[in-house]
Amino acid sequence: MESLIHARGLVKRFGEFTAVDGIDVDVRRGEAFGFLGPNGAGKSSTMRMIGCVSPPSGGELRILGLDPRRDGPRIRSRLGVCPQLDNLDIELNVRENLTTYARFFGIPRKVARRRADELLDFVQLSERADSKVEPLSGGMKRRLTIARALVNEPEMVLLDEPTTGLDPQARHLVWERLFRLKQQGVTLVLTTHYMDEAEQLCDRLVVMDGGRIVAEGSPRALIEQYSTREVVELRFAAESQEAYAEKLAGLGDRLEVLPDRILLYVDDGDEAAAEVQGRSLAPASVLVRRSSLEDVFLHLTGRTLVD
Amino acid sequence: MLTLVLPRLVSFEGTGRRAASVTERNISCLRSTYWVVMLSGFLEPVLYLFSIGIGVGGLIGDLRLPDGRLVGYAEFVAPAMLAAAAMTGALSETTFNFFGKMKFMRLYEGMLATPIRPIEIALGELAWAMVRGVLYSAAFLVIMVALDLTSPMRAAVMLPATILVGFAFGALGMATSTIIRSWQDFDLIASAQFALFLFSGTFVPPTAYPTVVRWLIEVTPLYRAVDLTRALSLGPVGALQLVDVLYLLTVLAIGLTVAGRRMGRMLCK
Amino acid sequence: MTPGAYVLEYHLVNYRRTWRASALSTLVMPLLTMLGFGVGVGAYVSGGVDGVPYLDWIVPGLIASTAVQAAIGEATWPVLSYFEWLKVYFAQAAAPLRVADILGGHLAFMLFRILLSATAFLGVAVLFGAVHSWWAPLTLIVALLVGFAVSAPTVAYSASISSDSYLAILMRFAILPMSLFSGVFFPIESLPLVLRWVAWALPLWHGVDLSRDAMLGLAPGWLGLWHVLYLLAWCALGWWLAHSRFRRRLVI
Question: Organism's domain of life (chain C) (predicted)?
């Protein structure tokens, strides 16, 4: 299968600091690929290198089969980019944001106007076409930025944290639109630190931490590999959960003590919960749930705040 | 067998079109208030012409040029105000506005995700600054002719000279904008611009200053611009004006190179 | 202390952080103007004006003009920004402060800036030997008066707009013409009658004339009284306008 992104030992350094520390990535046409990781993991730096606005410091990188160092403009003409922070043109109205942007790609005015109307319809902003950008809500701005990224009918769209800061309704709308794009055969590359987003959208993903890739696979495969099928969350009334941890020894594959609860990683949650009752421990609450990507993520990248 | 490896030249294919699309963007955001702001920039040198050239000129009377001719003070000041107008027009677009678009609006980040390259943004913005500068200069020349401060023929020759002046200051302003760090530095730029405006042989001939100061003045870009426009307006034109033109062309080339390079480094980290 | 003083204190604390950047425009610009026009152009004004050398004649006008520049500097972008971008006024309104305290505190700070600029300029003028009268310090009072007369209505204007484009318009269409045609650089008697009426109507000329009387040690006479009353009227009207604009935006 054709590789739209092909990276081997890709490195990005800013002076002394190494943001991306030798990663290998392959993204195939038509798939939705995710970069997961905490803040500072190197996701955005990677995205900027893929977007050909940041020259790699080392390693090999080919985008759409071309070399970004030499063919930046040619590659960018076939990419769509939705940056983390909206950088819409506040001096233009909603429609002009699309038509003007289209002109940067050399798209004829007439085609630009037609495409702008289609895209506004696609992201459900047709009614706001003549409005200014500033009064739009966060969700609307993000949808407009996504529409802008599609104005050149790109083969691949790069989305840097597409739903960060949006309310639930807006997020679901964005997801739904991105899913439609994927169905149309557009390759999606996104970064996120929302696990539900990754599970919803990505066929395949890598987890990054400290500039390196620490895991790779489909969401399902990652959960199977790095977590158990189910998780039991126990809350004890006492001040410290620590004291109960010993009494739970031997239950499940793994046990994690948090300040406010204890997590048991098990294959059968109900059985484990019954066992807890059997040991006559009386937790204030018991929650049995399926293991999620979040468990994988926290297991791989740790719970300490890295901000 | 001998293989010739040709160095890969920087491709300028499509550069013109891409730079033009940057200019086009500026034209699409001309709104009512922006129009007024833009036109108001033209007012500044006109007001100075009337206040200092004619008002204070009334106190001064005639001025003796270095070659001994006597000219009215307004005639002396007007070509300098023209050069200053070209400077102001070019600088307002390439310093304050350019910096705002780069740092505050993050406009160029969006542009760079398209096939546009940093140097093309610089060219497009400069072209736009020129459109503005030419409008100011042309309007000012009309006023000069109307007040009989120069002849229509000479005015026609001065217009291309002001375009060169505008280009040079536009490139200089853009290079400066890529170097400064924050809005506070604009106070510095404004002060520097005002100092240039006051002392570049604009209101009095540079011969009025002590020799050291005079040499300092003679190497500033605005003085060279004033020298050029004044020679074209009052005559005579000689080899010194060729120096002015070469000087301004050099400023343009250096400014544009620095701006394109620094933009690339800042935006394509 | 009245609550307005706390607001003034806020602005002063802020100023401690930014005074270096503004020192340039408050001191260097007028100094350059004095050198460029007073000394440079003045050398060509062979006869002087009204019987005094051009430098001596222009300096009092420049002091009044500097006061106005300082007033404008603080009454435009900062006010707009405190409403639109930094929202400082809204934060202050959430504290137990009245509209008059918020407005008064900021205007008091503007007076402080005006006094600072005018004093610095007067000091430079002394060094240039352009001060000859013991009445000269009175020019600082004049600076405060004309500064307030300009800043209060300007604050009202800045509080009524949403984009800084309108500030550029104000600067170019009102402030710059006022600075150039209010008798700072040449006597307004040489203006056409229409423009003379404009100069009479705007506050700066009144300040310039009063300042010149003080610096040259002339008796202001009845015209002086009229200047003062007229400037006070600008102050009162400006305060009223600014206060109503502030109330409309802060008290909803």
Answer: Bacteria
Based on the fold, state whether residues A140 and A275 are members of the same structural domain: no
- Among the partner-chain residues B33, B50, B58, the one whose CB lies closest to the CB of C165 is B33
Residue B208 is nearest to which of C28, C33, C40, comparing CB atoms?
C40
B window 9-28, beta carbon within 8 A of A: 14, 17-18, 21-22, 24-25, 28
Phi/psi of residue A238, each to 5°? Answer: -65, 165
CB contact under 8 A, B51 and C169: no
Range of the domain at A187: 3-222
Residue A149 belongs to domain with CATH number: 3.40.50.300
Which residues, listed in sequence order, are joined to residue B72 by a DSSP beta bridge?
A: B62
- pLDDT one-digit tens code per residue, A237-285: 776 777 777 778 777 788 888 888 888 888 888 888 888 888 877 788 8
Q: What's the order of all strands across the beta sheet hosting A212-217?
A: A79-82, A156-160, A187-192, A32-36, A204-209, A212-217
The reported pTM is 0.79
If asked whether residues A275 and A195 sit together in one domain, one would say no
C37–B203 C-beta distance less than 8 A: yes
Cis peptide before B236 (omega within 30 of 0): yes
- From the CA of B25, how many Å to the nearest CA of chain A? 6
pLDDT classification of B2: cutoffs 50, 70, 90:
very low
Question: How far apart are the C-alpha atoms of A267 and A286, rounded to whole Å?
Answer: 16
For tokens 């003085």, what's the residue?
A: B223
pLDDT band at B13 (very low <50, low <70, confident <90, very high): low
Q: How far apart are CA A216 and CA C178, in angstroms?
A: 69
What is the number of residues in chain B?
Answer: 269
Q: Which residues of C touch B194 (CB under 8 A)?
A: 29, 32
Q: Do residue C176 and residue B43 have CB atoms under 8 angstroms apart?
A: yes
Domain segments of chain B as ranges = 32-267
Measure the CA–CA gap between B185 and B192, rounded to whole angstroms.
11
Same domain (yes/no): A127, A172: yes
- When CB atoms are compared, the residue of C21, C163, C190 closest to B55 is C190
- Identity of the amino acid at A132: K
DSSP class of residue B8?
P
pLDDT at A138 over 50: yes
What's the CA gap between B108 and B111, in Å, rounded? 5
Q: Do A264 and A149 share a structural domain? A: no
**How close is the nearest chain C Cα to the Cα of B176, in Å?**
18
- Mutation for testing the B interface, residue in C22, C62, C163, C186 having most B CBs under 10 Å: C186
Q: How far apart are CA B248 and CA B254, in angstroms?
A: 10
- Could you give the number of structural domains in chain A? 2
Size of interface B-C (CB pairs under 8 A): 98
Rounded mean pLDDT of A123-145?
91
Helix (H, G, I), strand (E, B) or coil at A265: strand
Domains identified in chain C, total number: 1
Report how far residue C187's alpha carbon sits from residue C202's, in angstroms, rounded to the nearest whole number.
15
Asked if the Cβ–Cβ distance from C44 to B63 is below 8 Å, we say yes
Contact status, residue B110 vs residue A160, Cβ threshold 8 Å: no
Listed in sequence order, the residues at least 6 apart from A193 whose beta carbon sits closer than 8 Å to its beta carbon are A36, A37, A38, A39, A161, A164
The pair of structure tokens assigned to B195 is 């100092």
DSSP state of C189: G
More confident residue, B7 or B230: B230
Peptide bond into A83 cis (omega under 30): no
The 10 Å Cβ neighbour count of residue C192 is: 8
Whether B49 and C176 have beta carbons less than 8 Å apart is answered as no
Nearest-angstrom CA–CA distance, A302 and A305: 8
Q: Hey, which residues 86-105 in chain B have their CB within 8 Å of chain A?
A: 105
ipTM for the predicted complex = 0.87
